[in-house]
Amino acid sequence: MKRRTFLGATGATAAGLLGTGTTTAQVESPIENVEILTDSFGVSHIYADDVYSLSFGNGYVQARDRLFQMDAVRLLGRGESAKWLGPAQLPSDIEVRRDLYSREEINQQWEQASETTREALRGYADGVNRRISELAAKGNLPGEFAALGRVPEPWKPEDSIAFINYAIGFFGVNGGSELSNAKTLAEMFENFDSEREAWEAYGDHNRVVVPDEHYGSVDEDEIEKTDEQALAYGDLSEEQLEAIRAAKGVEPWGVSSAIEIPDGVTEGLRQSRGMMEGFKFGSNAIIVGSELSAADKPILGAGPQMGLFKPPIPYEVGLHGAGFDVVGMGVVGAPALVIGRTPEIAWTVTTSGDDMIDTIAVELDPNDRHRYKWDGEFHEMATEQVTHYTSPVGGVAQGETDPQSYDVVQQEVARVEQEGTSMPVIAWNPEENIAYCQRVTTRMGELDGAFQWAEVGRANSIDEFESYLSEFPFGFNFHVVSDDEIAFFRTGKLPDRRGDGDPRMPKPVSEHDWGGTKQGTNIGASVRNPDRGYVVNWNNAPAPGWREGDSEQQWGTVHRVDVMERLIGEAIERTDGSLTRQDVADIVEDCGVEHPFAPRSAPAMIDATRPGFVDSQLKAMAEELETWQSEDYSFRPGSNGTYDNGGMAIWEEVRKEL
Question: Structure pTM?
Answer without folding.
Answer: 0.92
